[in-house]
């Protein structure tokens, strides 16, 4: 994907994570989370919920849980969301 000049985005990562979790490919989940962290991506609310459910099911170990927490803390409010909150008053 990246070799052809097409960079992954949050949706790409989410779909890959969902497939890896569904097929019990936890090493690939860990690799993808590290790749996301190295690329500056964060977990959006939908992906966070997906990983939270996997953790609750006992599918993720402590190391992955710590990385998930790190990526989730990177979430920020987008400028569009901030502007929308100003006009909602």
From TrEMBL:
Domain of life: Eukaryota
Lineage of origin: Eukaryota, Viridiplantae, Streptophyta, Embryophyta, Tracheophyta
Renumbered ranges of PPR repeats: 9-43
Name of the protein described by the UniProt record: Pentatricopeptide repeat protein
NCBIfam families: PPR
Keyword terms: Repeat
